[in-house]
Specification:
68% helix; mainly alpha
Length: 270
């Protein structure tokens, strides 16, 4: 991917993106809590879930405020879950890795968006075993628009074949998961099918190898985790294990290493 911002120092790009990631991570904590409950993301403002006191602006600084308050509410002194700073810091780290991978290209906004919704969807699925349409379905046009911009690549060479491939990949992975759900409805929900189409859009934009590796890796890592839980006695064959996080993990593998892994596999065949 060709840089569109000229000779932007990598450290400067990373500092900016990581800072944005901290703020986005703070917002994602709100998303994870409110979207499954059908609540507004705007009103009311953030408040302590224990005592209801509004959170002061100085107590709403990502990660830092939690550390200053020693993980407790300023008003009622009840513990604040460590997940809040972990989501903020984790999102910032994920944004930094994405910027390091994509560089200063038009693909960066598209994949930062994917990273943000991936964090939210993984946590919501773990909490509720649901993948809300409010996030998944709205991400189809948003992701398509951002990938179209990356394919257009203003200031550089356009590659509309990547966008066409993305649309095909979206349909292919959606259809594949739909067939799996039809054959084994107890093991997969329609939310997974809808998420598959979105992930297929992004993976196929990168290439067919990334799509293939990302799709396979989801079942591989999810299967290994499920077997580990069964072996440890932490789950039974009837336990409902959210698959969304493993789809996202598989997609991350496809993005990061799909091209090289697919090339190595083809090399073994040839």
């Amino acid at each position: 991917m060709q840089s569109v911002l000229g000779e932007v120092p990598l450290w400067y790009l990373l500092v900016c993106v990581v800072g944005i990631g901290l703020l986005i991570g703070s917002f994602l904590n709100v998303v994870v809590w409110r979207v499954p409950r059908g609540e507004s993301l705007v009103r009311p403002g953030s408040a302590c879930p224990k005592c209801g006191h509004a959170i002061r602006p100085r107590d709403n600084v990502p990660v830092l405020s939690w550390l200053v308050l020693r993980g407790r509410c300023r008003d009622c002194h009840e513990p604040i879950s460590v997940r809040y700073p972990l989501v903020e810091g984790g999102t910032a780290a994920l944004f930094g890795l994405t910027a390091w991978w994509a560089g200063a290209t038009w693909a960066l906004p598209a994949f930062l968006y994917l990273a943000a919704i991936a964090v939210a969807l993984a946590l919501i699925d773990i909490d509720t075993k649901r993948l809300p349409d409010a996030i998944v379905l709205t991400s189809y046009p948003a992701g398509a628009a951002l990938l179209a911009l990356a394919s257009w690549n203003p200031g550089g060479a356009s590659d509309w074949s990547a966008f066409v491939r993305a649309l095909l990949g979206c349909a292919v992975l959606f259809a594949g998961y739909f067939v799996v759900m039809f054959i084994y409805p107890a093991g997969m929900g329609f939310g997974d099918v809808k998420l598959a189409g979105l992930l297929g859009l992004y993976l196929a934009w990168l290439g067919w190898g990334e799509l293939t590796v990302g799709a396979f890796a989801a079942f591989l890592v999810g299967g290994v985790f499920s077997l580990a839980l069964l072996a440890a006695g932490r789950a039974s064959r009837k336990s409902g294990i959210p698959f969304g996080p493993w789809m996202i993990a598989g997609a991350a593998i496809g993005v990061a290493a799909g091209e090289s892994l697919w090339g190595a596999y083809l090399g073994l065949l040839g």
